[in-house]
Amino acid sequence: MNATAPSRWRRPVNLAALAAVAVLALVGCTASADVIAYDLPAQSARYSFEAETNGVKTVWEYTSDRPTKPDTPTSQPCIADEIVKDPGPCRPEPLIFLRYDLGLDLANTVKAHGLHRITVTGYYQERLSKPPTVTELRVEASLDGGKSWQPAITKAGGQNTFTAKIKHPKRDEAPGGVGLRITAIDSAGDTVKQTIPKAYQLR
After folding, report:
1. What does the pLDDT look like over 67-86, one tens digit per residue?
2. pLDDT 10s digits, 163-201
3. DSSP-assigned states of every residue in 121-180
4. Bridge partners of 183?
5. pLDDT for res 92
């Protein structure tokens, strides 16, 4: 891994599996099966991790360095501790994950022609001993399949939680539904950008 330039991975993965895979920073290991293992240089550097599944694209950028001691609770050891001989110190990476409450009905649709509120919460793996705080979140909506994006009015709520109001047109003006692009930044300067080409349909 180059310490002076971001390193990028492109791999279609299941987001649930990604949560278990992308959070590992392992020393002295190699990639095998569905576990991504890599060496980190001792000095701090900026890294990028990219994943795409079912059309949803997520890009993380974060700062990390080689751990000098393990930083995981004994009740939740790193995967590499179980499958790799002498993996070295291990800790989760400070990736921001996003949880959505889109206010959908049972058909995954939302009423057209008006303002609609969604809630987005940033969170980290529980194994991260000192997670940062999500300080900023931006929401953009697309009504034309991602050709153009319009910012939504976004407001901070509880811890790491934000609400956004999206202006919906009439149903026939957005036949392909509503796409969302979310960007979150935390107190450590780590970021995530997640693009959902079709988050829901209008009714």
Report:
1. 777 666 666 666 666 666 66
2. 999 999 999 999 999 999 999 999 999 999 999 999 999
3. EEE--TT-SS---EEEEEEEEESSTTS--EE-EEEE-STTEEEEEEEE--GGG-TT-EEE
4. 138, 193
5. 78
> What is the Rg, in whole angstroms, of the alpha carbon atoms belonging to the chain?
19
Kindly give, in sequence order, each residue whose CB lies less than 8 Å from that of residue 82, ignoring residues fewer than 6 positions away: none
Domain 97-202, classified CATH 2.60.40.1930, yes or no = yes
The torsion angles phi and psi of 83, rounded to 5 degrees, stand at -120, -10
Predicted model pTM: 0.77
Each domain of the chain, given as residue ranges in start order, spans 15-92, 97-202
Q: Is 194 exposed, middle or buried (0-12, 13-18, 19+ CB in 10 A)?
A: buried
